[in-house]
Amino acid sequence: MTAIPGETGKPRIVVIGGGTGLSVMLRGLKQKPVDITAIVTVADDGGSSGILRAELEMLPPGDIRNVLTALADVEPLLGQLLEYRFHKGQGLAGHSLGNLILAAMQDITGDFVTGVGELSRVFAVRGRVLPAADLAIVLKAEMTDGSIVEGESKIPKAGKTIKRVFIEPGNVSALPEAVEALRRADAILIGPGSLYTSILPNLLVPEITKTIVASSALKIFICNVMTQPGETDGYAVSDHLRALRDHIGQDLFDYVIVNNGEIPPQVQSKYAQKGAKAVHLDMDEVTKRGYKVIADQLVLFRTYLRHDAEKLSQHIYQLVENWMIKKR
Fold first, then answer.
1. Are residues 16 and 93 in the same domain?
2. Tell me, what's the pLDDT at 1?
3. What domain count does the chain have?
4. Where are the transmembrane segments (predicted)?
């Protein structure tokens, strides 16, 4: 495969999101001749990340660690090492080794972003991984009953319907390197990931969204395969897009990539027990907003449903390649 010509010899793709879905996609995308920058939320306040955030006053490392692992070009055992979670030990149980390494790198280098960069070099990461801001933010949700739930980890567990999410401080400054990456991007990908707790916290950083809106880059939304209990119950594809538009104030995307493949009944039943269903592609609602839709069989099932990273990354690469050719 030949790289698309550009200043760096490769198209510059910025990916925004968090969680498992983003990591799966990046494992496929890193195999393409592209220059990747991942911008990751700093709103995580649960588990190991939440403890380190509170005790060490550092940015939450969990989503950063997941993306570093996905983009690393190392032996599988080293990847497993970053993801290893301790199950015993007072004060140690529940912590991921990768999170502890990131905490140590912050102390050694004196700065979290520098520490992430150094760890990226050690683990031969294919691309850059950047927090959306250099200050940990607090995510809050206003529910349809008027109540406010505080904390990224608590919002999906509240058992209520989300009306909107917002961050504190609301005027937090974006990381300058993240803004610069967006300005230079040939393509900007948003998703997959938890809509309200992984994707929107990035887009609520004012300068992040302002820069995306002003960009002439190709903008693609990758929709989740399944709804998420406590966040997107009953959501179709258009509902995800509407929530993004309501928070941002306008439509952002040129293309939407969605799964339209059948999910086996036994798999649907397994997810239904947890309150999750396949996200319905309501094509008419999506296209009437002006979005172009790429729909394909994009899921694999092993222990869990996941995006087919190879097929998804091929669709992304083809869209970017065509976009770059048109711009020449």
1. no
2. 38
3. 2
4. none
- Answer whether 0.90 is exceeded by the pTM: yes
Residue 285's SS3 state is: helix
Task: Enter the tokens of residue 152.
Answer: 């990224």
End-to-end CA distance of the chain: 19
* pLDDT > 80? residue 196: yes
302 shares a domain with 189: yes
Element containing residue 295 per DSSP (H, E): strand 292-296
Adjacent-strand bridge partners of 14: 37, 188
Lookup: tokens for 164: 């909107």
User: 54 lies in which domain range?
Assistant: 44-125
Taking the C-alpha atoms of residue 37 and residue 3, their distance in angstroms, rounded to an integer, is 17
56 pLDDT band, cuts 50/70/90, is confident
Q: What is the mean pLDDT of residues 221-247?
A: 96
Q: Could you report the per-residue pLDDT of 203-229, keeping only the tens digit for each?
A: 999 999 999 999 999 999 999 999 999
Q: Which of 69, 91, 125 is where one domain is finished? A: 125
**What's the CATH number where 192 sits?**
3.40.50.10680
Same domain? For 68 and 1 the reply is no
Strands (E), the chain: 12-17, 35-40, 128-131, 138-143, 148-150, 162-168, 187-190, 218-222, 255-259, 292-296, 299-301, 305-307
Q: Are residues 84 and 217 in the same domain?
A: no
Query: 91 and 76 share a domain?
Result: yes
Tokens of 97: 């080794």
Cβ neighbors of 259 (< 8 A, separation 6 or more) are 223, 225, 278, 279, 281, 295, 296, 297, 298, 299, 307
Residue 148 lies in a domain: no
